[in-house]
Every structure is written in structure tokens, then in C-alpha cells.
Amino acid sequence: MIKLFMLCVLVITSFTSLAEQGADKQPKDSVLLTVFLKHDQTKILDETQEILAKQGFFDSFPPKGVSVVSWYVMMGIGQVVTLEVPAHQVREVNLAIEKTAWKAFHTEFYSTYNLYPVYKEKLKNKAKVSYE
After folding, report:
1. Fewer Cβ close by (within 10 Å): the C or N end of the chain?
2. pLDDT tens digit sequence for 60-88
């Protein structure tokens, strides 16, 4: 009976520790990469969408194994996409953009990191906004 109890305690604590590890953390072998897809104001939205479809953007981006963290429109600038990229796939992300997004957008890339875990204990307002 004691062995069964110990097994239950072990199982419960292992699941609890796994849940805590995943909060606000990314895998150690990945990087956050923010991509600016800047609007080309000489084109209307329909032209941009047509170029993206013709070049295979919606099939190729993001590459398999890369996760979208967020994808927003920054009015007057364009689209801002933050990706979680396994370090060995950074080249694939770059090639997917070069092959399928150029001509529709001007692009910029920025290494990014999550600063919220550093500041959340210092903030007076502890609420974290979530759009999910």
C-alpha cells in the first residue's frame, strides 16, 4: 500500500513540475525571430495577396517545425510575425521569405526574446494580457 501511495505521489509531482517548466519558456535549442513584412504601398491588398498565393507563401511559411508565436498588423508598417524557430532552421525561415514573400513585401528580421518573465515580478500590475 505504501508503494502504491509513493507511486501516486511521484506521478502527481512529475506532472506538476512539467507544467511549471513550460510556463513562459521556450525550448533551449530555439530562438524567437520577429519578421517585419513591410507593406509596399504601390500595391493594393488584392495585388499583394495574389503575389503571395502565386509564389506559394501560404504553403511555405512558416516552414514545418517552426511555430507562430504572434502575427499582428502594425498599421502603416505592415505585418509583424514572431516565430519560435529551432536554431538549425533559421536558414529555412530566411529562404521561405526570400522565395515567397519578396515582391509582395519588404522584409526585416530581428532576434527577439521574452522580457516579460524578467519584469513580471517587478510590475505593480501583475495582469498579463492574453489574446487567446
Report:
1. C
2. 999 999 999 999 999 999 999 999 999 99
